[in-house]
Every structure is written in C-alpha cells, then in structure tokens.
C-alpha cells in the first residue's frame, strides 16, 4: 500500500459507493470517494427519495376524496407546488448531509469533482489538477436517463431529473414510456391535478411484470384519470405558441405543456477513462463484471446501476457489502438476485416478488397453481370508488412452494416486503395458509386464498 495514496478509491457517492467506502474505511483501510455532484446519488438526490415525497404529496388528493366519503369536508383544499418543492429540497439536503457526515465519521475522505481513470491505479479529478493513486478502485457511478436523441423536437422533452424541479406545475403533461418511472410520474402528476397522458409503444405497460398486474394497473390508473395510449410512439415534438404538440405515429396530435421521456436509464460510463484502465463494457454498454463485481481489470470492481444487473438501491447496497466481504474480509460473497422484491410507486402501487405466472410456467416442470383475487378495499366502501385490489399467488404445482406474489393496491409495497421473506424462505402454500389471518386487513387475503384458478396447473 505504501506505493499508493489510498487502499481504495471509490468513484461515485451514491448508495452503493457510500456503503462500500464506509465499510472499508471502518475496517481500517485508507479510503476516498469522489463525487461530482451531491453525496447520495440517484436514490437520494434525483430518484427514490424525492420521488416518494412526490408520490406522498400527490396521494393526498385521493385521500381527500376518500375522506369526503367519511363525512369530512375541505373548503378550499389546494396544493402549492413551490411550498412542496422547498420542503422536499430541504429534506433532500438534510439527507445528503447525513450521508456526507457518515462518510466523514467512518474516516472516508470526500473528494468533490469528476474522477476519470488515467490507468488502473490512477484517477484524475477533472479541472482541479488533482491526481490520486489507489491500490484498488471501485466504480459506482450509477446510471443516467436516456431519451431518443434522433427524434425531431426531443430537445423540448424533459426527463425525470428535471421533473423534480419544474418551476411550476404544468396544466398538461405527456409522459412517454411504460416502465417504473413513466407510471410513477404519471400517477404523481395526475394526483396533483395535472391532465396526464401516458404513451407507451408496447401492448401494455410494465413489460416483464405479470400479465395480470399489467392489465390490472393499466385499468386502475385510467380510473384515476390518466389517459393511457398504447402501441404508439412519437414521430416528432413541435413547439408552438401554446405548448408542445406531440405528433404520434398513429396520426394523433396531442398538445401539452410538458413532455417527459421516461424511456430508460443507461450506465454512467461516458468519459470515465475505462479503456485506459483496461475496464471493458458488455454488449449493452454496462461495465462487465464477474459474480463478485470484479471488472476485466484485476484491481477494479464495479457495483450498482453502472453494471446494469438489477437497478435497485437495496441491490447496489448488497453488492457493496458483498464486494467488501470478498475483497477485504477474505469471505468471497456474491449477491443472490433471486426473489428480490420490488415496488412500483404508481397510484395504486404495485408490489412484486418472485416469478410472474408466465416465468413460472417456463421454469416449473409440473406446472403451476395460480390463486387470484380482486376486491374492493374496505377503505373505499363509502366512496363509490370502482377501484379494485389485485392479489395473485403463483405456486409451483410439484413442490407447492409459493414462487411469485403480485399485489396491486394500497400498501402493496409494505406488504410485499413481508411476503418476500416467505418466498425467499421457500415456504409452501400450506405453510402460508397455516398462518392465521389478521382481520380486517387486505393482507389477510394472502393467507386465505382457497380457489385455484381453473386450468392453472399445466406447464407452459
Ligand atoms: P424501464 O426500463 O423500466 O422502462 C423504460 C421504458 O421506456 C419501457 O417501457 C420501454 O419500452 C420504453 N422505451 C425504451 N426505449 C424507447 C424508445 N426508443 N421509444 C419509446 N419508448 C421506449 O426504465 P425507467 O426509466 O422507467 O427506470 C429505469 C430503472 O430504474 C428501472 O428499470 C428500475 O430498475 C429503476 N427504478 C426503480 C424504481 C423502483 O424501484 N420503484 C423506480 C424508478 C426506477 P419497452 O418495455 O418496450 O422496452
């Protein structure tokens, strides 16, 4: 080590980079982390955390509707966007400060600036005339939004990054894409009273999710007032005196005030100097790593979204822990990507763990048993709401293990965290059913589902 400035130099102070840096410094190593923007990364600064605040702000409108059914009345209830933005930004600054303070407490040196690899052991901080050497380097630079740059007028479209800081709430917004970010922001804006249109090129939103979830959610978000246009893409975006006109391939023309593209995120590898360090990319443009997160350079590792394995904050944190255990604790570990629960904070939200029905049909040789229920949540009893909850269990017909749980409805992200324990533990349907219900709840349906969906057991 004497030959290097640091034992470990981490590039990127997001969830993964911060965890790896802290653990390693607490283990007695000399560690630095470089961050070009603010400590906290995508999750804290321009992702999960501010997004959840926006969801919570937006959900209030629905809560008020329910409240009126219960006899409450609200005169002049109104939402003020600048007040919300200010409160959100104060909290984000507080959280970012905590992240930075925790790095300091662990003894990690924070380097402000953009780090670029000069060779496998050297990083330069651009514009600061600073160069550091390190025995080992960890790349945790995350991802960044992608939009189709060849689309005429795309310069008028924003991404989720700008959506967090819109100077004023638009009257009309069009969101392109059908993934997590598109459906989450469609719900946010619709709940805040913005006339919202979602345009997705495929046959239904949330490709990769269970088909019942996709169909159910598409129907539910329409009930909340979102106009969903499927099987359709942009031809061009035209700026006029009154707004932005979206010209679609099917001939439709839709004028809005804001157009947001949520068409995916790509690994943040641009101008990182990877070639100089011998770090290769895979065919999708993500950093190529082995199961232990080691890159093609012997002393360089990469974790989180920059490796495009499973782009979720808790996964990046687990990859950081596994990296630390493998490299500094003589305890080789790799993260197990099976049965990772995920939530889409749409309105209503989605909670999922394990296999979709079609995935289970492909992997369970004796077929699957499927249990589905749709019902009106008790909370809506006085509101006349047509909203329904979907709960679905997918069970391996042979082992009787519950291999997939899919919920669309209020509190599903909270429920799925607990269901994930049972799925990860490989519990059988009989063991789920042996668990006594908590009444009256929505979650009790998960342990009282008796009717198999007819014709379910055949293998696909
Ligand atoms: P996703 O990959 O989830 O969705 C991208 C969407 O854009 C898809 O519907 C895709 O369509 C569509 N798309 C891609 N290219 C084009 C194109 N050229 N024209 C039109 N549509 C296109 O990405 P997101 O940006 O929504 O989110 C990125 C990742 O961030 C997620 O995958 C997730 O891992 C993570 N995330 C997690 C969240 C959570 O945990 N709650 C919240 C937000 C993000 P198609 O399906 O046809 O390819």
Key attributes of the depicted protein:
Enolase-like, domain 1, NADP, globular, 3 domains, alpha/beta, 23% strand, 460 residues, FAD, FAD/NAD(P)-binding domain, binds NADPH dihydro-nicotinamide-adenine-dinucleotide phosphate
Description:
- Catalyzes the reduction of glutathione disulfide (GSSG) to reduced glutathione (GSH).
- The protein is α/β, with parallel strands linked by helices and 460 residues long.
- It has three domains: 6-144 and 266-328, FAD/NAD(P)-binding domain (3-Layer(bba) Sandwich), CATH 3.50.50; 154-263, FAD/NAD(P)-binding domain (3-Layer(bba) Sandwich); 342-447, Enolase-like, domain 1.
- Helices cover 30% and strands 23% of the residues.
- It contains twelve helices and 21 strands.
- The chain has helices at 15-26, 41-46, 48-69, 81-106, 160-163, 180-191, 211-223, 274-277, 313-328, 357-363, 412-424, 429-433; strands at 6-11, 31-35, 109-112, 115-119, 122-125, 130-139, 143-145, 172-176, 195-200, 227-230, 234-239, 244-248, 253-256, 258-261, 265-267, 300-302, 342-344, 350-354, 368-375, 389-396, 402-408.
- Strands 1, 2, 3, 4, 5, 6 and 16 form a seven-stranded mixed sheet that branches. A five-stranded antiparallel sheet has the order 17-18-21-20-19, with helices on both faces.
- Strand 4 (115-119) and strand 5 (122-125) form a beta hairpin.
- Helix 1 packs parallel to helix 4, helix 1 packs parallel to helix 9 (313-328) and helix 3 (48-69) crosses helix 4 (81-106).
- The longest helix has 26 residues, at 81-106.
- The termini are far apart.
- NADPH dihydro-nicotinamide-adenine-dinucleotide phosphate binds at residues 148, 176-182, 184, 200-202, 207, 233, 262-265, 311-312, 342-345.
């Amino acid at each position: 080590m004497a030959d290097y400035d640091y034992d470990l130099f981490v590039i990127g102070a997001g969830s993964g980079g911060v965890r790896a840096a802290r653990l390693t410094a607490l283990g007695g190593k000399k560690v630095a982390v470089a961050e070009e923007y603010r400590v906290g990364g995508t999750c804290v600064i321009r992702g999960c955390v501010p997004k959840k605040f926006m969801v919570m702000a937006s959900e209030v409108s629905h809560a008020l509707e329910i409240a009126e059914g219960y006899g409450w009345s609200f005169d002049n209830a109104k939402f003020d966007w600048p007040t919300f933005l200010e409160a959100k930004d104060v909290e984000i600054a507080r959280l970012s400060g905590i992240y930075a303070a925790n790095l300091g407490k662990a003894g990690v040196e924070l380097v402000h600036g953009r780090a670029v690899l000069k060779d496998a052991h050297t990083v330069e901080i651009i514009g600061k005339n600073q160069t550091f050497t390190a025995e080992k380097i960890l790349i945790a630079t995350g991802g960044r939004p992608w939009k189709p740059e060849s689309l005429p007028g795309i310069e008028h479209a924003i991404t989720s990054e700008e959506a967090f800081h819109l100077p004023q709430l638009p009257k009309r917004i069009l969101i392109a894409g059908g993934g997590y970010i598109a459906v989450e922001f469609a719900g946010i804006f619709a709940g805040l009273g913005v006339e919202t249109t979602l345009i997705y090129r495929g046959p239904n939103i949330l490709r990769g999710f269970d088909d019942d979830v996709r169909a159910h959610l598409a129907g539910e978000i329409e009930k909340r007032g979102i106009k969903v246009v499927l099987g359709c893409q942009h031809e061009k975006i035209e700026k006029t005196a009154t707004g932005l006109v979206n010209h679609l391939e099917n001939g439709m023309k839709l004028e809005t005030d804001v157009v947001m593209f949520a068409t995916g995120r790509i690994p943040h590898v641009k101008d990182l100097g990877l070639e100089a360090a011998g770090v290769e990319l895979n065919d999708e443009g993500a950093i190529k790593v082995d199961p232990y997160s080691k890159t093609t350079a012997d002393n360089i590792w990469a974790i989180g979204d920059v490796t495009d394995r499973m782009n979720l904050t808790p996964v990046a944190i687990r990859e950081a822990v596994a990296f630390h255990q493998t490299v500094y604790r003589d305890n080789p570990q790799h993260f197990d990507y099976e049965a990772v629960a995920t939530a889409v904070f749409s309105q209503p939200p989605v909670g999922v763990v394990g296999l979709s029905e079609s995935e289970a049909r492909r992997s369970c040789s004796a077929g699957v048993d499927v249990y589905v229920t749709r019902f009106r949540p008790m909370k809506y009893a006085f509101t006349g709401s047509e909203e329904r909850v979907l709960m679905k269990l997918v069970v391996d017909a042979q082992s009787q293990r519950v291999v997939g749980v899919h919920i669309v409805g209020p509190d599903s992200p909270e429920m799925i965290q607990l269901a994930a324990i049972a799925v990860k533990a490989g519990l059988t349907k009989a063991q789920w059913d042996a668990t006594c219900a908590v009444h009256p709840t929505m979650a009790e349906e998960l342990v009282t589902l008796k009717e198999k969906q007819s014709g379910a057991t055949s293998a696909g």
